[in-house]
User: What shape does this take?
Amino acid sequence: MRAIFIAVGSEMLDLDRVDTNSGYVARRLRQKGILTDMKVVVGDHMDNLSWIVKKACQRAQLVVLSGGLGPTEDDITREAVATALKKELVFREEIVAGLRELFRSRGQAMPEINARQAFVIEGAEVLANPVGTAPGLYCEAGGCKVLLLPGPPNEMQPVFEAAFEKFIAPAANYHIYSRTFKLTGIGESDADSRIADIYRKYRNPVTTILASPGIIEIHLLGRSKDSDEEARRLTDELAGKVRERLKDFIFAEGDAGLPEVVIAMLKERGLTLAVAESCTGGGLGDQVTSVPGSSEVFLGGVIAYANSVKNGLLGVREETLKRHGAVSEATAAEMAAVARRLCGADIGLSVTGIAGPEGGSDKKPVGLVYMHLSAANHERGMRQIFSGSREVIKRRSAFYALNLVREYLNQLAADGGRQTADGKKQADISDK
Amino acid sequence: MRAIFIAVGSEMLDLDRVDTNSGYVARRLRQKGILTDMKVVVGDHMDNLSWIVKKACQRAQLVVLSGGLGPTEDDITREAVATALKKELVFREEIVAGLRELFRSRGQAMPEINARQAFVIEGAEVLANPVGTAPGLYCEAGGCKVLLLPGPPNEMQPVFEAAFEKFIAPAANYHIYSRTFKLTGIGESDADSRIADIYRKYRNPVTTILASPGIIEIHLLGRSKDSDEEARRLTDELAGKVRERLKDFIFAEGDAGLPEVVIAMLKERGLTLAVAESCTGGGLGDQVTSVPGSSEVFLGGVIAYANSVKNGLLGVREETLKRHGAVSEATAAEMAAVARRLCGADIGLSVTGIAGPEGGSDKKPVGLVYMHLSAANHERGMRQIFSGSREVIKRRSAFYALNLVREYLNQLAADGGRQTADGKKQADISDK
Assistant: This one.
């Protein structure tokens, strides 16, 4: 079964309001092996909407619409779908009675305009809306299932779930299993070239590689006509091979972001973090503090944007700045060490670089960034030349710096030791 | 002229990657009075894509596609469009020559796979891509203009702009004039209620109010069949009334963001800024340093997330923290003053609050945020209770804090004086 999703509402065309219903519905359908071929956003316009519904019903076996079921004149989805399917709209007295009752329970009289919501496509099943006034509708026409859902996500979801359970899932013909790896510290084409020879052999699972600044995601989606177990087996087989090749870069499997992963690792070890930021300008701390509960392990730090702050407040030696420059391995190392000491943290993490678009030179081009991690008995620096816009360079720098923390904590774990705040190592003999 | 936009890429169907190109293109088209009837997202699938292109070309006068012009086998847009329009693909040697040259300039050999990008729909105009390897294409078929753009937004935009200028704008049949006000320090419904009685009287210009965390945008779009002047006159008439009601909150007209506006104002006055951030965790500095050239006026500051850092590194008095708490007017005031002094800045700006979701109490609920600006002869504090997620509260806090700087600099300007670093005022008699 193939699906087309149609989001109805001019605000998504004219005002860049993003339709989120399509993602929800596509994800749920995919869990039953029903793939969405297309998503359409169309305004509250009778001709356009009935045109696309008609075409979609000729093409797909399932057409899901959301929006345009309200009581006002703008709400034309019922009528447009009826037109497309060459069906009549019939008035259902019991819907009006239900609406009157709903309004009375809220201590209000039903505005007469809401009676429009009692018009139903002939032959359609009415789907109760437990949250709002717009009921959903389900009908079939020429071998195509058509589902009309209310637009607000909190109303759409329960109505969709009821219809999914009753009409859609029983007709689904695939079992699906998906896995996602998240990577950092590696670029998209590098990641791709390391696994292309493996995943290209498989048409099932389907492999998708996605890049955003500093983060690569690898999605594997396996499907089976027979069973969940078969879909899982196929996916796990490929996932194992992909993981083996890329394990040094994988920081999470599933939905967790890099800051979440690093904060969780710090909590587990009881270690604290401080930062010293130059070119990220606060963006590293902003990422870290995006995680609820980060205050347990993140102490703070210094935004040392101007050299006067690097030297003054932060206390990087003037000699270091003079001899090596603000963007240098030596400055990064000192920034991290001093931030750690000033904040009394276990780990100091620094970033200094040239985010551009101005300020680069032949020797130190835009995109050159030094990151450094300083901890008891451990120093680790990294030099990168990032490409991209100012925002992208800042973002990549923050993620690569966080990855230094992840690698360090992984290494601690591999060493089997536990790093304590005062720098002593002790065997981790706890049972946790 | 009516348009349909088609975004090509399975990742937008299967992985909830959001297409942002459609918004950009729709906005630019709207500026010439070309309305987008539909946006479609379709996977990298030959039959589905050529089907929707064919239907779209029957319906609209302009069809814009983005994505699927890369060199790999997944990239099928050229071929699918050729099929839909019943045209041949022809090989253009000069495109390959250009690609070889591009790779050579990067010190690389062109992978042979990139030769696929030299196939062109017969009769199509090739649109140079100044950023990447995928050229755009423009052709006409049966009265419909068809534009193929690369998928990455930074490649899409310059290619679109060239085609827009050459082929699309000259054929537009409306004159359009738009104005945008950007506001901060006010919520969406408050802004709406202050101007609803005015803008509801006008069907032309169309008024749209958009909210994002901390920022409200009011878009006015006037159109005329006759002339640019008429469209402008209509828009200016309404804009004048809107501005009058909301002038205290408007920080920019047009595209500039609040950080850009504040940095420009600081530069103009030759004043420097330092920050002390608690709940924003670096997000305020991150916003400030998103502006190229911000290093001229932004010195840096302290991320004082833990109380130990507020008291230790930053130097907020223990007594203040004990008596008033970390989230208090007194702590915010001291944070700003100390940040200013430690960094040697003209203006100190602080944020301290509870971003949630945990950590709130009856007296100090989640969303409670204190912001403070400290300058020579000027102290200004602000208390807000923001609603929304952790991310939204952080973002709103950063923008409201920046707005304190804007208001302060406006006030300086209104006073006709020039604030200098040592706190003296002098009449601004320079001719700059």
